[in-house]
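Consider the following assembly input.
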Amino acid sequence: MLLAGVVAAAAPVVLAAMGETLTEKAGVINLSLDGTIVLAAMAAFAVAYETQSLVLGFGAGAIVGAAVAAVVAGLSIYGAQSQVAVGFVLTLMTKDLAYFLGNPYARLNGPQVAHLPLPGLSSVPVLGPGLFSHNLPVYFSFATIFLLWWFLYRTAPGLNVQAIGENPKAAFVRGLDPSRRQALYSVCGGILVGLAGASFSLCTKVGWGRPQGAEGTGWITLALVIFGGWNPLRVAAGAYLFGLLQVLGIHAQTWLPSVPAQVFQTAPFPLMILTLVLINLARRPSLNPPNPNHHWGRLVVKLLAVRPPAALGRPFRGEC
Amino acid sequence: MTALGQPATRPIVLVAQAAAAALGFCTLVLLAAGAPPFDALALILDGAFGSWLRLATVIRTWIPLCLCACGLLFTFRIGLWNIGVEGQVMAGAVMATAVLRWDAAPLSPGVFCTLSLAAAGVGGALWAWLAGWLKTRSGVNEIFAGLGLNFVAQSLILWLIFGPWKRPGVASMSGTEPLPESLWLFQDPSWRIAPVALVLTIAAVALTALVLSRSRMGLCLKAVGNNAVAAVLFGLRPAGLMLLAMLMAGGLAGMAGGLQVTAVYHRLIPSISSNYGYLALLVVLLSKDRALVAALVAFGFAALNVGSVQLPMALKLDSSLAGVIQGALALAAMGVGAYKKTRMKKWIAGWNHDNTF
């Protein structure tokens, strides 16, 4: 039961985190996640409500995600504006836009994704009810993790994504167009983020309102991508850990009534800061050549430290 | 670029272009929502300036926004994205409440209020220092450090309200027990503006303007912001200056938080920062490193926030229209900047081309 709850609660977070991982692997920080998810949730619900079609709802969410990511990429890569500034402004604006345009759709009963246990697999003991008795967005979130991992580490275009995120100049010399690919993968990542928003309002927290319940997810996703060291599998593990914390936080209310549930949900943030500190520690000269005095420290840092894409947040400008 | 014969665009033209673009976008949004754009705008203006009392509300909103914006000018000047300003406001509010809850009877209320505001400044500065320390000592990007600390501060406030500082009886989202009236910052009963807060804010604007444009410190911050490597060669220490800028930003933001407790809400509430920190980031993006411009933009933003409060009643629209307009303005400013940059690039390319042949 716990497993099922965690997997279902984490599905939109996993989708958004995979989108942002792809974007950041290509060297672009899309800081607008928190607002994008809310706006996509609103658009998806509104479209699904008007057309009574879930497919069109998810499509609307994806379009919103892609459009916001395109603005971030366009202004920062081609317009030489600060990437974080554009992303931050869009975070605030898209959320307000969602509340403004979504006002007529608040507290309405709209369509909802149907429960769809996978025949055969769902009757496997223990794992069946936990993993295979959900709905399509949840299965899609599983698939995304492995597809993204496979794409990034096992296909040529995926390796090119990494090359652009690590060293756009070298990639340019090898005949790739870093700007165009960064824009492309930002939009692809944005589509996943938009789908995450859609799965909030059509599946995880059905409906629209102010607040919808998806608020804050975007920031947590950004923290998870760092905590997971830009590796899809680790990021997904972080997302499920966060889902577990969310579920436990609800139960913890009975043991620790003085601690509000929201407090547990902020756990990813200290973990994110710790990860960032470790990234830097691993680069310290005192730990880098094997130093017998720092044996344990080196071991811990090596186990936990990750490395961000080297050109993250610094768009490629011009020819070399 | 003027040296090459390219006519420089005056800042006012840029502002006008951005405003026109934002206005166009907002009109489209209003039409999409099926609302009359002209009526909505008129309603916002009336809501902000329709009466003296409404103007007073705008000023009450302007105070924390402007304080945060002034603080952010220091960090922007040195090239730091102090997104943690929101948490710094909260830390200031927590410190101010902590001092005011401390029952030291012999102290007069005046001393108490002064102490609490000072503590608020220190609290905000400490919170900012933490992010700055993580940045300068551990290389943690200030955006992520600040963001993380924002959520930690929010958790701290929730925990305090539901735990140690909970109201006798039942804890609730309405906040801590209201402070005794003797500890409220003096204010005119009808206007509900604390003169001390107003004076502090105006002083902060003046101080920021002076320090940034007329002092050695302002010059040093600018030098590091423009080129940290060159600044080191000139004998400056970027890490120390970054911490200094963070302390200034945190101190002013903390003061804003303290004023929200002592002069506005008279207690600690979960949403004590009211997003003024995040909004101040937009203000600073629009004000080109100028304190006076920031004060004006902050005033305009405050007017939008206050004016849009009546939208739900009169036109059945959500009050978040204010946020849409503010965001559109900031985005349009960046869009115009991007347009100019690309045009400039083409022009330079053309110029080089002409000169090769």
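Chain B touches chain A through 51 residues (CB under 8 Å). Ask yourself how this observation constrains the way the partners meet.
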